[in-house]
Amino acid sequence: MSDARVFVISGPTAVGKGTLVSRVVAAHPEVYVSVSATTRLPRPGEVNGVHYHFITDATFDELIATAGLLEWATVHQSARYGTLREPVMTALAAGRPVILEIDVQGAMQVRQTLPDAVLVFITPPSWEELVNRLRSRSAETAEQMALRLASAKHELALKDMFDHTIVNDELDIAVSELVEFIGL
Ligand code: 5GP
Fold first, then answer.
1. Which residue's alpha carbon is nearest to atom 19 within ligand 1?
2. Cα 125 to ligand 1 centroid, rounded to whole Å
3. Domain enclosing residue 104, as ranges
4. Residues with CB under 6 A from ligand 1
5. Does 23 reside within a domain?
6. What order of strands is seen across the sheet that includes strand 118-123?
């Protein structure tokens, strides 16, 4: 039996989860990072199968119907996102630690489906810093930004439901904390 585990990384939008996870994997390529399926359209530079599996609503419905997803959620009141079951199970069977970078609704579902999963919440040093980080991203329109800030307020309130919290102030320190927590 392998004792490889699933680590769920969640936190509000623009807190820097993606950068944090990329840094951990660059240093520890044995970690498997799940590539989610989503119904949202690719942003410029995003590659199908690398950043996400970009799929249609019909294909997403089919994945739900065939229990192909470990969890899924509608995020920022716009698109659906979900974790593909099969690649995660294959990585665990091979003894690889698995990271899921997903939203808080998904994290709560994983707690039900995979009770051994460890839930890690990434938090900004302050609300003001989160707003600054979101503003410095050019991809969002004012309307999308307002939606993301509303989601972020809601997400920050769920911090206590997680097993562990890491403050992403200095990136290097946050990376070391996550590496140590995962036990790499
Ligand atoms: P973005 O559209 O900026 O790539 O991602 C928006 C949000 O969707 C992020 O908070 C991210 O954590 C979340 N997300 C990405 N993949 C998944 C997934 O497979 N399941 C869930 N529940 N959320 C996801």
1. 82
2. 21
3. 6-182
4. 13, 36, 40, 71-73, 75, 81-83, 101-103, 105-106
5. yes
6. 32-33, 98-101, 6-10, 118-123, 164-167
Q: How many domains does the chain have?
A: 1
Its pTM stands at 0.94
Q: Is residue 1 part of a domain?
A: no
pLDDT for 14-68, tens place per residue? 899 999 999 999 999 999 999 999 999 999 999 999 999 999 999 999 999 999 9
CATH of the domain at 172: 3.40.50.300
pLDDT in tens, 127-167: 999 999 988 876 678 888 888 889 899 999 999 999 999 99
Give, for ligand 1, the residue of 17, 51, 102, 104 to mutate: max count of ligand atoms closer than 8 Å to Cβ. 102
